[in-house]
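Researcher: Next sequence.
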Amino acid sequence: MSEVLIGSILSALSTGLGALPILFLQGSITHRWRDILLAFTAGIMMTAAMLGLIPESLKYGGIVEVSIGLFLGVLILTTLEKAIPHIDLEHSKSGIKFDEKALLIIAAITLHNIPEGLSVGVSYASTISDTGNLIAFAIGLQNAPEGFLVALFLINQSISKWKAFIIATATGAVEIVASLLGFYLTSFIEFLVPYGLAFAAGAMLFIIYKELIPESHGDGNERNATYSFIIGILFMVILINSF
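Model: Next structure:
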């Protein structure tokens, strides 16, 4: 219990850690670096899903459980996306007023963090050594640049640096609750473990392909984003092999 709590808290607080540089930033970063950060986090999440969550789901269940879990993850994320319209942090040209737009961004990011928290909790519920720590670390790495981009968006909407930092940090707090929920469900209902792991993988894959990769290719930086994506994959492969 203490391990999953610590892992989920550290993973969630990585959002705030990523937003921290906002307090000292003079000016703004280029689209190129934003795209590089997004692509790097996509590579990290891709590897965590394909080499961490899915293989472990197969160990607990089979192809049927993995398929059902994956499709459920994609279905839930699709439903959430329809309930909370996606607004591109950098490329939006909508006429939504500030208060409504900021609320949508915060709500979308918060909901987006729920499956990430679930993946951490489910991974800690498995009996395979260090999987929980690995997934928590991977999600934490993904959360850091996300927190930075959310805080940067809020500052561009004339919110103070400190308030933007606090809001960005708070969006990650939902991961703690989701992580504990995933942990308890799969701990007490053991047959849910393969479904839960595959569900988390499906949700992450949806986020990667639907959100992170398209956004990292939105400003003509496709080649740099591709290199960064591959570096993110290699980084996680090295990390997985070191556990």
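Model: The radius of gyration is 17 Å. Residues 92-99 have pLDDT under 50 and may be disordered.
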